[in-house]
Structure prediction request, 279 residues.
Amino acid sequence: MRVSAYILVGDPNHLRESVSSYYDHVDRIVLSYDETRTSWTGTPLPVDECLATIRELDRDGKCVDVPGRFARLDENPLDNDTFQRQNALDAASDGADWVIQLDTDEVMLDPAQFFASLRRADATGMSAMDYPARWLYAQVAPGRYLEASTRFWRPSASFPGPLAVRAGTRLRHARQTDTLLYRVDMRPWNTDPHHPRDAPVHEMIPPERAVLHYSWVRDHETIRRKFGWSGHAAHYSLPIVYQRWASRQRHPLRTVLTNPLRRRDWYRLVSVPENAEPS
Prediction:
């Protein structure tokens, strides 16, 4: 089973940890970025800084540059997101059976488990694999984070789209596709509130083997820039989004203890070893 990956180059936060977590398990990595070094919304991105980090990691010469023009300012940013991913996926599909779709702020905690699940997905004939991500909202102290959870503080999976798809897959929206999904979750039933309660689960893993998504784990200056370059910039740029994030970061215990009073946006406090190596 030949496996490739693609990277949307532009965000240096957690890039090194992300690529290192799966580098030894893939045959080829496509590096996709806009030739103008700008985002889907036209804001500047530190592409060259990211490329320099990747060059340091690429000891076996697996990485291939595939630049393009993706900052189409007359298009919706999420359409640009999908357009760039499809371009990268098409390039990564060449000579591959499967393609990994991991963003650079997502880190495999247990790569061996991930690729064992992928082999099982391949054996079932499914066309894509949903694999649970634990969504980190903010860092509140060294090694301590607010993590998305259920209302009563149980782990909750996030599935932004399949993290692995068969070569040649067509994307519908961002990473999402309409193909048959092999679904891995952290309990025998669906733990993602954004999916139907009866969504099938084909395989269960413990939370410590999930993917860790450092989604909004940034300093204050960087989180503002991220909100501006995101495909969801129209919503994320609203002042209330940053204000809530900053307040919850400052008051993590209050944030966690008031879970039962909120209809959504629930969190728990977790410890993650700093600079931990994937198992």
